[in-house]
Amino acid sequence: KPYTPMRESKTDVPITFNFQKNYREKILIHHQGGGGAFGHRALRHLRITNSIQNKINKISTDLGTNYVGLHVRLTDYRSDYRAAIEEAYRCHEQKIYLATDNMKLKKYLLNVKSTKTFYSPVHSLGSIGKPAHMDNPISHMATANSGAIIDLIMLAKSNTLITAPIIEWRTEKFFRKYP
Question: Which helix (H) or strand (E) holds 166?
Answer without folding.
Answer: strand 166-170
